Amino acid sequence: xxxxxxxxxxxxxxxxxxxxxxxxxxxxxxxxxxxxxxxxxxxxxxxxxxxxxxxxxxxxxxxxxxxxxxxxxxxxxxxxxxxxxxxxxxxxxxxxxxxxxxxxxxxxxxxxxxxxxxxxxxxxxxxxxxxxxxxxxxxxxxxxxxxxxxxxxxxxxxxxxxxxxxxxxxxxxxxxxxxxxxxxxxxxxxxxxxxxxxxxxxxxxxxxxxxxxx
Length: 214
Ligand code: PMT
Hints:
Helix content is 28%, strand content 26%. It is of the alpha/beta class. The strands form 4 sheets. Strands 5-4-1-6-9-10-12-13 form an 8-stranded mixed β-sheet, with helices on both faces.
């Protein structure tokens, strides 16, 4: 099967040397891409900037900004059977990018931000994706409630929710603990290395994909 995975942070440029970003290392998404490939699937990994090596035999498109990631996903989603959105996409980007490095002459500086495209939220409509759609939810409160809202708002078959306020899991850690949120139930998995968790998640997602075909 053809599988698309997004991973890593995005960078939203302020000027030629500065940008807005977040703490995503890309580890969760890269482990998923590796695990899908190891399970025999053709994987396209679309990733924001990370320091990770691209897993062997995985197709790779590096991107910088949310707009770049949206463009790459839009171009390739149509031929995918399954898509997993693990990237931590910036929700806002500066309205304009200063052509020269901003001077620090003023005592304060106000940046005007505008919303980025919701890539996962565009997959069903307007991009018309009909395959199995899996999103992540990075939450610091009301994990289940917020994940359920994302599941239905973004038309997903499954949301993998992680509490990113807990130390030792989530952003930039080698471990994670997730709750699988389906339309009719939820299941919390024990803390595991992102490597082991990715293999477990891939089995779960492949079973879900099979059930969708019945
Ligand atoms: O990269 P690591 O250091 O290994 O950390 C892993 C992780 C914590 C980043 C990962 O497990 C995770 O939770 N990824 C999603 C982070 C996130 O941005 O969550 P969100 O709740 O803000 O977004 C919900 C979903 O919509 C996500 O699938 C996200 O990829 C997607 N999204 C969000 C905004 C946007 N503009 N476009 C999107 O596609």
